[in-house]
Design goal:
This protein is an alpha/beta fold. 48% of the residues lie in helices and 12% in strands. The chain has helices at residues 36-39, 41-48, 76-83, 139-147, 189-200, 207-220, 241-252, 271-288, 301-304, 341-358, 360-380, 389-407, 413-428, 434-464, 470-497, 501-517, 537-540, 542-555, 572-578, 588-626, and strands spanning 96-108, 111-123, 128-132, 154-162, 174-177, 259-263, 291-295, 309-314, 317-321, 531-532, 535-536, 559-561, 569-571.
Length: 627
């Protein structure tokens, strides 16, 4: 028996499904000469533009499954685009080729390391091309290069052609399933897939059809039994890792892409689940004429038998590649329609509200702690009265309440980091942009933070015996809400820049500590050093406007007994000017308006941080590598 042309670490091909190798194929190491076919693909494309697509070599004429494959039906969710007249038009078939593809990365001190070295190959419609090789051989880098996802710290040379043209992949024509499973843990499987269907599909598709399409995808991926179960993760227990992997694949195939990239689709799955998933994908590729490129590590022989083409890599170089077949017609790729911006905002807001409601760490735990803290505040400062000593008690209570309750917003930082990870994945896949994410995050957090501010705030306010009048309490609660919204915006900015739990909490705490220190309570405004601490820190500290607004709300209209007991009284305006050094040139409503403006400014800074973050982070990484 002749020796296998594959390296010994590659799986043995199925005996009933051998690799398709041309009659003139050589050994794996010497197969570089066979690349004259791939290197001349661009010259072959023009004559094929006027031909119709040839039938798949391995597909029987009657369209039935061949006996060598696992008998599994295609995803009805994608196949429905042929049947439903409301759905989007089918994507044109994609023939993907790459010639002399080289990728390098900075290795420090001005030198660059070669990750991929002059690779050439092609992927055909209706087939699954497997990228295989040992760990570190460059499978994921090749996948990222073909998908246009290389980081700015890497440089690519060579040609990547889509149907013979150099063009970018538009939304809906391709999908990328990452190796890391990033899903919202508090949602059920059904909710996650339904939300994704509403985000990806245009508004011309009826809501009932979107639900049906999502339900078919769930059934065909074998997830019907866990459709009502939460995905789970850090927040709560949920479905298994293999089931989460299938949900990720299911979500990305809803838009009926013509080109699919899969990074370790069988990672974390047992042999049965791997065969089930890859069988669905292979059948889908055959039935829908989809081009599938998958980076796979150590597949079973049954899974290996499902691949149409094989690309073996070692140390960034091509070891073996199956022969390329004739090229097929390529029409220009057109961007598919998506849901409208308002629909995306509504869906994301609803999903975020569900996540906040179910995330005990983000809402319920904080709510319970807030109530406990406000009960403590109310009992310690219980009924302070109108004596001279109550002046300091009222000022201390207002300062402590406004700073500690807003400082507690740091507790939601882990949830912010998880949201940012999910956003990054869905943004790269073109589901929605940063603007929709920021708007939905702001709208969804508003009612929850309002409840956190009103109920615990009422406990502390009325137990302490602060100034009576419902309008005074409304202002008190409004300031707490504005401060909490503002701090959440600040922590979201930190989460976008520092995606590490510990470093992010330390950074956010340090920033709030500095702003609190310069608010004019621990050190009166006239005593603050003018460089830096008063100009500009004192005026950009939100604590300054919060405490001065609360002071005006509380002290104006009150009178206090003189300490000497001589029957003299001090009015609130005198105390504000003399003892607390509050700026009296404008009313408390101006302080509240400034806080609300800062809420908007922080959210806009959050949006700007997201948009420029992708460009800044790789530059910082390159600088750190060089140092």
């Amino acid at each position: 028996m002749a020796a296998s042309p594959l390296p010994r670490w590659a799986p043995t091909p199925s005996p009933t499904r051998p690799l398709r190798v041309s009659s003139t194929s050589q050994t794996a190491i010497s197969s570089c000469s066979s690349w004259t076919v791939c290197s001349s693909l661009s010259s072959i494309f023009v004559p094929f533009f006027r031909r119709s697509a040839p039938p798949l070599v391995d597909a029987p004429a009657n369209g039935a499954d061949d006996g060598d494959r696992v008998g599994c039906h295609p995803l009805d969710c994608v196949g429905a685009r042929k049947r439903g007249h409301h759905l989007q038009e089918a994507s044109p078939m994609v023939f993907l080729t790459w010639e002399d593809l080289t990728v390098t990365a900075s290795s420090g001190r001005g030198s660059r390391a070669v990750i991929l070295d002059r690779l050439s190959g092609c992927a055909r419609p209706g087939e699954v091309l497997a990228l295989m090789g040992p760990s570190g051989c460059g499978k994921t880098t090749l996948l990222d290069a073909l998908a246009g996802r290389l980081g700015t710290d890497k440089k690519r040379t060579g040609d990547i052609l889509i149907n013979g043209r150099r063009e970018k992949l538009a939304f809906g024509t391709s999908a990328y399933v990452t190796q890391e499973t990033l899903l919202m843990a508090t949602l059920t499987v059904s909710e996650a897939v339904h939300c994704s269907a509403q985000l990806q599909l245009p508004d011309t598709v009826p809501a009932a059809e979107k639900r049906a399409r999502a339900d078919r995808a769930i059934r065909q991926m074998g997830l019907a039994a866990v459709a009502g179960s939460r995905i789970g993760g850090r927040v709560c227990k949920g479905i298994s890792g293999g089931q989460r992997r299938r949900v990720s694949i299911c979500v990305e195939l809803l838009a009926s892409p013509a080109l699919v990239f899969l990074d370790e689709p069988t990672g974390g799955l047992d042999s049965a689940a791997s065969l089930h998933v890859m069988g669905r994908i292979a059948s889908l590729a055959r039935e829908e004429r989809m081009t599938v490129v998958a980076a796979v590590h150590q597949p079973s022989s049954e899974v290996f038998g499902l691949f149409h083409g094989l690309c073996l890599l070692a140390y960034g170089k091509m070891v073996y590649f199956g022969p390329a077949a004739d090229a097929v017609e390529g029409a220009p790729l057109a961007k598919k329609r998506q849901a409208t911006f308002f629909t995306k905002c509504a869906v994301l807001t609803r999903r975020s509200c569900t996540n906040m409601h179910r995330d005990a760490g983000y809402y319920w735990l904080r709510f319970g702690i807030y109530i406990g803290i406000c009960l403590s505040i109310g009992t310690i400062f219980f009924n302070v009265g109108n004596s001279f000593a109550s002046i300091q008690a009222r000022a201390s209570m207002l300062m402590f309440t406004s700073t500690l309750l807003t400082m507690m917003s740091i507790g939601g930082f882990p949830s912010f980091v998880e949201d940012m990870k999910i956003f990054r994945k869905e943004q790269l896949n073109g589901h929605y942009d940063a603007t929709a994410f920021v708007i939905s995050n702001t709208l969804s957090s508003t009612p929850y933070l309002g409840i956190i501010s009103i109920i615990p705030g009422a406990i502390a306010y009325y137990l302490t015996g602060l100034q009576r009048g419902f309008d005074h309490f409304v202002y008190f609660a409004a300031v707490l809400w504005a401060c909490t919204m503002l701090v959440e915006g600040l922590m979201m900015i930190v989460a976008a820049i520092v995606p590490d739990f510990l470093l992010g909490i330390i950074t956010g705490s340090g920033m709030q500590g500095l702003l609190m220190l310069n608010a004019g309570f621990f050190r009166l405004p006239s005593d603050l050093p003018k460089p830096i601490w008063k100009y500009p820190t004192y005026y950009i500290s939100y604590h300054k406007y919060a405490t001065q607004g609360l002071y005006k709300n509380e002290f104006l209209g009150l009178t206090f007994e003189d300490l000497g007991g001589r029957g003299l009284t001090l009015n609130g305006e005198y105390i504000l000017k003399t003892y607390l050094q509050v700026e009296m040139g404008y009313s408390k409503w101006v302080d509240l308006a400034i806080l609300l403006a800062m809420v908007l400014i922080y959210r806009m800074l959050f949006l700007v941080t997201i948009k420029v973050g992708d460009a800044v982070k790789p530059m910082i990484k390159c600088i750190s590598v060089k140092v």
